[in-house]
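Course assignment 3, question 2. Fill in each field.
Student: A.L.
Task: Predict the tertiary structure for the chain below.
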Amino acid sequence: MMHSQYTPEKMVWSEADFDSMGWHDCRLHLINFPNADWQMSLDLDYIFKWTPHGFWVSPATLKFFDVARLRIDMNFGDYSATFINDIKIRNKKLAPSGKMFLLDFLITCDCGIVEFESSGFTQEIRKLPIFSQTQDLGDSQRS
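Answer field:
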């Protein structure tokens, strides 16, 4: 079956787009922990569209800024892959400096949770969506 190309609305998204985004069943490949710039990034396969015959999926980098109070509770057990169930913003508050707002993020996965405070995020789509019969992409499709 031939599939036409799916073109996303844009290639870089942010917390301003949060309500129109969703991460259910997105494959999480890698977490880069906060660095000297207080940034943390997730390497994932972002599902743009579900169809009866498959999914339009892109490799993406979800980067959070000014990350603090990071807590991870995961039990991988027999899991060979990790999928995101949901990402929620639970609270918005003024930072102690009074110069920015911080958001409380909760990322639930099939094997646990990641929670932290952040001033916001960007999600960069690294390639145009690829039609896949599964929710994740192979290594050759991601590079």
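Instructor remarks: The longest helix spans residues 139-142. DSSP finds one helix and ten strands in the chain.
Grade: pending
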